[in-house]
Amino acid sequence: MSQSIQVTQKKHRHQEVQRVQRVQQVQQVQRVQQVQQVQQVQQVQQVQKMQKVQQVQHVQQAQQQHQFESSYHLSSKSSVQQQSFSSHKTSSHRLKTVVKTEKGREVVELSPLPKRAKRTYLAMDTDKELIGYVIPVFRADHDVVRGLMEAHEEDVTEEGINYVAMRNLFVREAQEAMVVKVEKKTRTTHIRESAERVELGKTLEEWSEFRKKMNPDNLTHPPDFIVKPRGQTVWEGKTVKLHCTVAGWPKPRIAWYKNNVLIDAKAHPEKYTAESSYNMHSLEIKSCDFLDTAQYSASALNVKGESSSVATIIVKRFQDCEEAGPLDPKPHGYSSEHGVTFLTTIIDNFKVAFGHEGETLSLGCTVIVYPTVKKYQPEVVWYRNSVPLKPSKWVHTHWSGERATLTLVHLNKEDEGMYTLRINTKSGFDSYSAYVFVKDADVEVEGAPVAPLDVRCQDANKDYVVVTWKQPAVEGSSSILGYYIDKCEVGTHHWAQCNENPVKYARFPVTGLVEGRSYVFRVRAFNQEGVSRPSRVSEPVVAMDPSDRASLKAGPSAPWTGMIKFTEEDPTVGVVPGEPTDVVVTEATKSYVVLAWKPPMQRGHEGVMYYIEKSVSGSDTWQRVNTGMPVKSPRFALFDLAEGKSYNFRVRCSNSAGVGEPSVSTGDITVGDKLDLPSAPGTPVTARNTDTSVVVFWAASKEVSHLAGYYIECSEVGTDVWMPCNNKPVKQTRFVCHGLTTGMNYVFQVKAVNAAGYSLSSSQSDAVIVKAAVSVPGKPSDVTMLEAVKDYMLLGWNAPAHDGGADVRGYFVDYRTVKRGVAGNWHEMNHQALTTTTYKAENLKENLLYQFQVRAMNMAGVSKASLPSARLECKEWTITVPGAPVGLHVLEVRDSSVVILWESPAFNGRTPINGYYLDLKLVSAGEEGWKAAHEKVNKGKYMKVTGLKTGASYMFRVRAQNLAGVGKPSGVAGPILAQSRPDTKEIYVDVDDDGVISMVFECADMKEGSEFIWSKNYQAMTDTSRLTIVNEKGKSRAIFNSPSLEDLGTFSCMVTNTDGVSSSYTLTEEGLKRLLDISYDHKFPVIPFKNEMAMELLEKGRVRFWTQVEKCTADCQVEYVFNNAIVTQGKKYTMNFDKSTGVIEMFMDSLEVTDEGTFTFNLVDGKAKGATSLVLIGDEFRELQKKSEFERAEWVRKQGPHFVEYLDFTVTPECDVLLKCKIGNVRAETEITWSKDCIEIADDDEDAKKIERKDGDLTFNIGKISKHDAGVYEVFLKDDRGKDKSTFNLTDAGYQAVMNELFRVIANSASDIQVVSTEHGIILQSVVMYHHEDLRVGWLHKDAKISTSERVKAGATGEQLWLKINEPTEKDKGKYAMDIFDGKDGVKRVFELSGKAWEDAFEEFQKLKAAAIAERNRARVVGGLPDVVAIQEGKSLNLTGNVWGEPVPEVSWTKNEKLLVSDNRYTLKFEHGKFASITIATVTTGDSGKYALVVKNKYGTEAGEFTVSVYNPEEDEGKEEKKD
């Protein structure tokens, strides 16, 4: 421990000595520089004096010649010397550091520097963490620096970066300087020189101010970096490009520096490429190595000044070396805070995405940061087009700790671009990028344009703002005629249109804003078809003065604690403001002109407003434009100007004191577009990229100002439909067009766009087929040793899974030795590419360990190296079993099968190999998951494995066997996914028209360089005489030259340069026999017939013989033969052959006795033949002849009035019987007569009312038929052309047929059986449309016929068919069927009288029965009592009522609803249970009233009411006398 401390102390002391020496050198250099500065000042002073003399004499000449040069030279020289001196001075002060010792004392000492240590320019925080780079500022004149570089270019060597920076900063000027004599100066001399320098500085300032006043161009401004170059981290061997955008006027010149050393790109074109175009500047550094790690700065310079921007490039190196020790330097990216180097891997990447406007799109990646450190999370940043995205209502980001997600809400075309996910860690960063395309939403009106995009607000003032936008990619069915701009005040939802007339220019000044309020804007395009959807709204903008906006952005200032001193200011209240200055036209279009000016210097404390005046050129009359209200902003837009006319403009200021003097006029301004349309871009050049994308390059438009970007369009060859490839303009001249259809042929064109509009489209590119570009192949795999001897090894490996789109042309093998567990460097073994997957590594050392790696090569280049093999010892094998098979690969991957192929081992063992065993396992299973794919040994070197699980991944290996046993397994092939490729096609066998047998295989994924390779039994075919291979456009045909048993076997075909496209076909003996039969049929073809010859009778008794062939050509000929004699067209025969349908016809007017025989059609079509015949002899011919004669007679009959349909009958749904017929060819004079039983039905007969005629239909409505309607009915037709008769016999069989049809209609009209309960039992009933007395109806119970009895009866009442079951019991439950005779079998209606149906019906029956019993037995008065009884007073009243009831009812009498009891006055009797009497002995008038006999038993109560009226005759007479 003590020794290490001593070593460290010595090292530190040595470093201190070096540091002191370095400081002394720096101080010496500074002194030399001071001397140089004094000399240069003196020289400049002399030159300046001479210039002053010349200036007095030739002021105008001096203004022209020295307007830029003198100022530039003097200012740059002065700034270079001052900055250089200050840089050296500050650098020297950094050499001292403060160190705190263990005792707490602070000691100022020089920081130690090791012997070969280089100065660090890394900025460190308090925790010693790397936070950036710090480089000394060095600026100089470009010519001076270039001279320094050229003078010492040969002496510069490749040294460390930091050392180069130190040398350039501190040593370069000392080395360049010539021998300088240093003299000591007195104080007086030093003071005099200082005074001269001060005087010189004042002179230079006065000269600069003079030139500013004399310079008429006040629009010049110093350079300003709009887009600064961005630092990057790359791997060695990659190319990096720095970009920047610089504004300034005059146009600044750009120079690039590396560690403050000028980069001469022209001198080193193999390393650097510097480009400048339209203020876009770039520096490309090719094939970066570790020495390119540096700070790169871009310096911009013009007469107004200089500006620079710095970016850091870090080049990371792959290192294959021993593990670093704790004292060794840490690798680049090492995090001192966590003590580890973080490795970032981005997986599950998002692909090129397509969305539509209004949709929501999410992008995401899974991020793995290794190692995992607790509480440490990387920084996740999303970029769009290299601009960081901030969360907003349109953009949502999420980081779960493992997955980064970006969600774009309500997509708009502004969201289109290159999206990048960057993961920043303490050790560096990793990124992934993919493009997002946003397609336009569907237009509301067909043919209308799509919405504009990228609406922005610029040059906002108190009441004025300029709205800009970009034109859309699609104009619609016609060109865009203009745009409408809408505004909306923030906080409201009311959109107001800003322009009445549409503007063509993509830039518009909006005036009339209210100061202090915020607005948003949107734009709509329109053409002849309609108006587009509105664009996405702009960002809110506040109508306010720019100076106020700047103060708001700056934020509150720091508190000031000094003294405030009040002074009396000049009174300015009531002062009229001065005139504005610098009135210029900033924008001029056909629609408007925009003026801008500077406020006056004299304006008082109150604000000023402005009046704008215009005058037509050539006139002295000025007209005020804004007469109503002065404007507050120093900007104003004038509309309604005459296009092509010239105007002058001036501005006046006003305040409460009055209106000031006018400004200087602008001069003649002609109204018109200052910005022209861009010229057409160059012809696009295309290059293949992927299966769905193409890279398009083009030359930029030569004549274009303020370019907004380019739109790229594509069209499939053969169509005139152009589709946009991008919906957001791009400024670069290279674009990758995605979303194309694989295999289709496309052409491309490009158009430029700026604020003035679209350029003409470029010329169309050459057609390009969308296919993947060729790339380097994948890495080989499974490098193994096949055989080993004392001084060489036989190696084998598997070909790469992907060949990069081109055939693998060879392999390169590297090796390294492994000694004591330490691996050496890699060395090449072969300089010529190997064409096989095996290699004999010779000249090795015995018993030494080696490792090998392999690289594959194709036309695109060399692949990455495979994984190193295991450590292999070079010693002779002594084993007896065979080695491992090699070259495992798969073909014909399907859902449930795969074919495995392999090659024999290089080492067979002691005896020859006699077979192989194939093992397989699921990828998810461990090593114990291996199992044999077959039981018996496989003799061949291929095998088809079946029974795989679809969607599962498998791994395979093979073992060889000889007499000594089974050898080691081969390398593993896989994982192989058991899943058929999309659009997988198999080999099929085809037999052409000439009988040639061939096998055909088609491939839709053919790429450039792809070939079809045929093999038999998975081995190359050596006998080429058996097959002829013909390839054409994605199809390969293997033609059998002479098919025989020698061709039996498995034929396979694979397509190179594809993802394993292959198929096979096994030709068996049975299959060969079948194919030979088909071939014979094709060689000797027979014309196929759809129909054999047939015959049919036509009108007039004509006969048609016809047939139809399946197919024929235009050369097909027909020969018509009868009884072996050819017949031709004539009076008897008419022939026709329609070759389009294949129908062959021959017509004969009639059949005669001589026509008995055989008719034949003979066909000849090229070499194909066919014949078909029809034999007409004997009874068949005679029957056909009779039919022909009948058809002819029928035709004759139909020439006059005739029956089209003879008399027949029908039964209507209402069960009426109609006799009907249909007549034809009748006239008004045709007589129609009906008769029954040969008796004509006259018009006045009752039956005549039943006859009806409607058009050609005659009907006789019999109605409901009965037996008296039976008879023979006839109808007669007659006129001068002929007559006809039709008869219908409605007797016997005819009558029975009618009845059967009637029964059918009745039976089918029967309704479903319904159940009805009565007091006697249950009734099953069905209703029919009509009931006839002869209709047979049968009832069945449990499929047994019901016989009629007193308890069960069947019958019909009207149209109701019923079955009555009296007093039902449990035995009556079950299935009932009603069988109605329908003339044939019968129609059944079934009802299941059980369960709930039985319970409900039986319950209802019991209720009704109980109610009937109660009704029969209830107590009631059945008679004997009058309604009214009139009796004379004094008489005796005796009334008797008959009573019924079971049981015998109780009897009572009431008077006026009061119960009467038997007493002396009332005698009440009830005798024999039937007779109830009441006796009133002597009635009085008091006995008058309402009486009732009330009977009652358990079934009910009833009252028999009557009225008793007692009268007195005398009283009645007295009343009558009084009336008289």
Helix content: 10-25%
The overall pLDDT, averaged over residues, is 81
Contiguous helical run count: 12
Distance between the termini: 170 Å
Shape: extended
| Low-pLDDT windows of residues | 1-8, 58-182, 320-334, 554-572
Which class do the helix and strand fractions yield?
Answer: alpha+beta
β-strand number: 105
Q: Approximately how much beta-strand content do the residues carry?
A: 35-45%
Major sheet attributes? 6 strands, antiparallel
Q: Could you tell me the radius of gyration in angstroms? A: 59 Å
Write a compact overview of the structure shown.
By secondary structure, the chain is an alpha+beta fold. 15% of the residues lie in helices and 40% in strands.
General description of the model:
- The protein is an alpha+beta fold.
- The chain contains 12 helices and 105 strands.
- The strands form 27 sheets. Strands 50, 51, 52, 54, 55 and 56 form a 6-stranded antiparallel sheet that branches. Strands 6-13-12-8-9 form a 5-stranded mixed sheet.
- Helix 1 packs antiparallel against helix 2.
- The termini are far apart.
- Mean pLDDT is 81; it is low at 1-8, 58-182, 320-334 and 554-572.
